[in-house]
Amino acid sequence: MAKKKLRVGVLFGGKSGEHEISLRSARSILKAIDRKKFEVVELGISKEGRWLGTGEAQMLLGAAADVIDMPGGESGLTIAAAAAEPEMGTGLDVVFPVLHGTFGEDGTIQGLFELADIAYVGSGVLGSAAGMDKDAMKRMFFAAGLPLTPHVTLLRSEWKADAKKCVRAVEKALRYPVFVKPANLGSSVGISKVKMRAELGPAMDLAASFDRKIVIEEGVGGPGVKPRELEVAVLGNDAPEASVVGEIIPAKEFYDYEAKYELNGADESVSIIPAKLTKAEEKKIRAMAVAAFKACDCAGLARVDFLMSPAVKGRSSEIVLNEVNTMPGFTSISMYPKLWAASGLSYSKLIERLIELGIERHEEKLETSFSR
Questions:
Q1: In this predicted structure, what is the pLDDT of residue 68?
Q2: 371 - beta bridge partners?
Q3: pLDDT over 80 (residue 35)
């Protein structure tokens, strides 16, 4: 008897500023997933937050959301229906949420999956939330003894109430250049590099427009230094593994949204896999990636990013953690899949392994008692 195909819901779109990136990732997964092993159901969320049925979801992948987001359309497959009676063929065995950024990567959709008691790919509520909130993430890194660049966290309300006091706090703790970031956002949206006091106010205003918490980080290596940007892909649940180390050479001064997604040809950023490192540096970075993954209680997948200042006379190179990304870009040419391809795991096999890990984690959860 032929083995029953697993029914996988690929969820994409969403209200996040990374809506379009999510569509790119979903298209790539849907093209590569092994249809002999998996029955695939497309699940879309419009930019306005409306859940879309399969027909509309397929249209979303090929058209602008505002064109198809019309009232009275096909009703979406709800998570409640997806979780119900999978053996009857009416539900899903597992959801692969390819949702980047707010509402998809911050623990909110993961909480919905947990309430619906449905298996899903990626980190749980805590890991997702910690991986999204740069302030909370840094606190977890610090508690685990992992190296960080000096930073300050301020609230939007504090900035609005007394901007001069906030500037003094930043300048007392950090030296320029600094990077000003919204605590909860991805794809480098709302991030500014600030080289002097005159640039700090506009950068704070921009970051504050995207989140109530603002993280200000000291530039690694100090003035005039352009640190190397290194990335590691981590895969697994309780026993995660690290890929080879890759390096990004940004097309701009740092790896912002434009450098990641909008520059092409001779102007686009370049990835080097594997990065040119000593064996000791590579071993240290891969170990730090796994430690960061565990510190944030991640599961399934995460891309861990590092900054490395070059060695100078009398001082060795400095390697610090930048962040963990629990649902990184997932096209076939995104860094996460490329790092695993360079480590010997193909794109289609990576998708399969992530689905397995999501199901394994859900089955492990069934061992937990939730009442006396």
A1: 38
A2: none
A3: yes
d(CA 277, CA 55): 48
Q: Which of 222, 120, 123, 111 is nearest to 176 (CA)?
A: 222
Positive or negative: CA dihedral 9, 113, 46, 12? negative
Distance between alpha carbon 76 and the CA centroid of its chain, in Å?
Answer: 26
| Single pTM value for the model | 0.88
pLDDT digits (tens, 9 = 90+) for 116-164: 899 999 999 999 999 999 999 999 999 999 999 999 999 999 999 999 9
pLDDT at 280: 94
Question: How far apart (Å, rounded) are the C-alpha atoms in residues 38 and 57?
Answer: 18
- Residues 6 or more apart from 301 whose CB is under 8 A from it? 121, 122, 233, 234, 235, 326, 327, 328, 336, 354, 357
Q: CA 361, CA 117: separation in Å to the nearest integer?
A: 12
List 241's β-bridge partners, or say none: 235
Query: Do residues 240 and 234 make contact, with C-beta atoms less than 8 angstroms apart?
Result: yes
Distance CA 363, CA 191 (A): 39
Only one residue has tokens 């397929």, namely 58
Q: What pLDDT does residue 18 have?
A: 87
199: tokens are: 């640039």
Residues 6+ apart with CB under 8 A from 21: 100, 101, 187, 261, 329
Instruction: Look at residue 2 in the predicted model and tell me its pLDDT.
Output: 56
The answer to whether the beta carbons of residues 81 and 87 sit under 8 Å apart is no
